User: Fold this.
Amino acid sequence: MNLVFARHGNTFGPGDKVVWVGRETDLPLVERGEEQAREAAEALRTAGLVPASVTSGTLKRTRGFAGIVRDALCPQVTAVQDPRLDEIDYGAWAGLSSEEIAALPGGTAMAEAWQKEDVWPEGAGWRSTRGEILDALRSFLDEVLANAKDGETRLIVSSNGTLRFVPRLLGIPEPGVSYQMKTGHLGLVRREEGRLRLVCWNAKPEKFGIG
Assistant:
């Protein structure tokens, strides 16, 4: 069984102000983001991993990315949206650039700990809680693992804040490492003889499946 995890593509174009965007802001993919979805589809095709199921969060950026991949590889499959895969609600940080966050009291330290080690920034004013995100994602992953059949591939499209907890919840992390994922990048978890193995994470499409 192969679980392919993908982060949606770009939601900002050249010249746009890049800000933190969570579930509170429902941006669509820009042209480059759609192109990234096509690149992801080609990576899966090259790896021989045609999804038997396609699931994404409910936001436009994840639905759009998943839909492009599905149309390219498995149009007979119905794409499903699941709110358990939605991004964190960044609350007080939503709509701010990284520079603006750094100017907040404690902003630099909290942002660095989050980016480098996935440490949840208590006191940052996020509307989502760590427990809510982990409980929702754990429920989703448990369901997938219980129902996935040997030999099949499942595509799961979500966002950076949520995806970074996947390896930890599956029990295959390295301590002190961030599992953040760049836009349009991919991860692959494989179950072999009942054991899960992290084949790759945060991989460019052209490097996907190497590990």
The two ends are 16 Å apart (CA to CA). The CA atoms of residues 7 and 159 lie 5 Å apart.
